[in-house]
Specification:
Largest sheet: 2 strands, antiparallel
Shape: globular
Bound molecules: phenylalanine
Strand order of the largest sheet: 1-2
Order of helices and strands: HHHHHHHHHHHHHHHEEHHH
Number of helices: 18
Strand content: under 5%
Distance between the termini: 59 Å
Length: about 475
């Protein structure tokens, strides 16, 4: 069935629909794969504290702004700004969003592929009886294999494509409703096991992992930690590039935007912290290095499963759920590009999906093989904290540009537009559903979008570039 241009714009069938779908976009590899490894590399508890501050003061306001823009314009991010501010350069925010979606989905597809490979490895019981060290080697071996990361990246992108072509409601809601709750329960079970693991060394304090996660060591707080926390909060909440403008355009007129943004952001943050509780106690108990980079959770989780009753089955189920959580995020990334292509180039949804998915898969292939074929494809820079040269491969470069620049700058312009140009009456109308709902948080929200969020983002940038020194 081909869907013509007019049939594209549906709306979610229930309030649970939008919350499940937007939470599906937000909750994904960002929470379970990226959050722990960035926290591990960036100061533990100090990072967590800054991260939480950013979610509350910047993340939630940006998310709600995107919902308002999306639902009031009923357009893709690029079209939305063209409609709201014709003949002004705001549409650049939309273009940046599409570029960000391209870049993020390219490396996201590679990690989605790792998840599928780990599902496969779980089924064939590859980790059985292996030591922590051997489990780490398995990850490194896989990632620097000549074709496997590519194979799985293509499979993952194929699945993303199929769901997007099938259409928004049927595609998204069905999968996330069943598997997200299961993922939550599994994470709780893993966290309990992780906390109760006996330590490999007598000398180690049993609470070392939790202390690392929750006890801020302020001496570790520096510009990089703050910059990392900002990028991670945007990435995890799916904000700054219009994914939630696109989803906002599908929200029904009588759904409550404010409470939806709140529920989605808090659940996303809860899952990230829970992933931290599942990972770090085990990192310390089993003798891993918290600074293991992108491989962190792919090394720790199988090691935890080795120490669990029924670990074989839990492992399989966990990687199925994680793959689906990754898919409900990847479809929202592809959706941004597809709706923009459909509405701006007036092509069918099917055609737009084929073009977008193919281009992104090609870019993603370079990411997937960034540890083998395209290993040298990147830049070498000096890491100031260690004084050593580090190699940034293509995967890392895309992650860096998108998360550290495109998302926060996109978010900055989104809140500036909403706070200063959208018109207070229009904001109020949208938040109150044309006067039906009470909006007790209105002044707080306006204060956050007009002052707090833009100033905070600007300060983080000035601090990172060294133009301003915090602390
Ligand atoms: N938030 C998603 C995750 O945590 C990733 C994502 C980023 C999705 C940006 C859409 C837009 O996995």
């Amino acid at each position: 069935m081909t869907r013509d241009v007019d049939a594209v714009r549906g709306s979610f069938s229930s309030k649970f629909g939008i919350i499940a779908a937007a939470a599906g976009s937000a909750i994904g590899l960002g929470n379970i794969w990226r959050f722990p490894y960035v926290l591990g590399e960036s100061g533990g508890g100090a990072f967590l504290l800054v991260y939480l501050l950013f979610v509350l003061s910047i993340g939630i306001p940006v998310m709600l702004s995107e919902f308002i823009i999306g639902r009031s314009t009923q357009m893709n991010p690029y079209g939305a700004f063209k409609k709201l501010a014709p003949r002004q350069p705001w549409f650049i925010v939309g273009i940046m969003g599409v570029i960000a979606a391209f870049m993020i989905l390219a490396f996201y597809g590679a990690v989605g592929g790792w998840t599928l490979e780990y599902f496969f490895k779980s089924v064939v019981n590859q980790f059985s009886g292996k030591s922590s060290n051997e489990i780490s080697q398995i990850f490194e071996g896989f990632r620097s294999n000549s074709y496997r990361p590519l194979l799985w990246q293509v499979v993952f992108m194929g699945l993303t494509f199929l769901i997007v072509v099938a259409g928004i409601e049927k595609g998204i809601e069905k999968y996330s409703k069943i598997l997200m709750p299961i993922l939550l329960i599994l994470l709780i079970i893993i966290a309990i096991r992780s906390v109760s693991l006996p330590s490999f060394s007598e000398k180690l304090n049993p609470g070392a992992g939790l202390k690392f996660l929750f006890k801020p060591d302020f001496s570790k707080l520096n510009a990089k930690v703050i910059f990392d926390a900002l990028g991670q909060s945007f990435f995890s909440l799916s904000i700054g590039m219009g994914a939630l403008i696109t989803y906002g355009s599908y929200i029904r007129k009588n759904d409550n935007l404010g409470s939806s943004a709140m529920i989605i952001s808090l659940s996303d943050t809860f899952i990230a912290v829970l992933a931290g509780i599942a990972i770090f106690p085990a990192v310390f108990a089993l003798g891993f290095d918290p600074q293991s980079g992108e491989g962190l959770v792919f090394k720790i989780l199988p090691a935890i499963f080795q120490n669990m009753h029924g670990g074989y089955y839990i492992s399989i189920l966990f990687f199925i759920c994680l793959s689906v959580a990754a898919l409900t995020s990847s479809i929202s990334l592809l959706e941004v590009v597809v709706t923009t292509f459909v509405e701006e180039f007036k092509i069918t949804r099917r055609k737009a999906s084929i073009i977008a998915a193919s281009l992104i898969t090609i870019l993603g292939a370079i990411c997937a093989l960034s540890w083998y074929t395209f290993k040298g494809f990147g830049i070498d820079t000096l890491d100031e904290s260690t004084g050593q040269m580090v190699h940034f491969n293509f995967f890392m470069i895309l992650d860096y540009i998108a998360l550290k620049f495109l998302l926060p700058i996109g978010g900055l312009f989104i809140v500036i537009y909403l706070g200063w140009f959208h018109g207070k009456k229009n904001v109020m109308k949208e938040l109150s559903n044309q006067g039906v709902l009470k909006v007790g948080y209105y002044h707080l929200f306006m204060f956050l979008v007009r002052f707090v969020a833009p100033v905070a983002i600007a300060i983080v940038f000035l601090n990172e570039t060294g133009l301003l020194k915090l602390g």
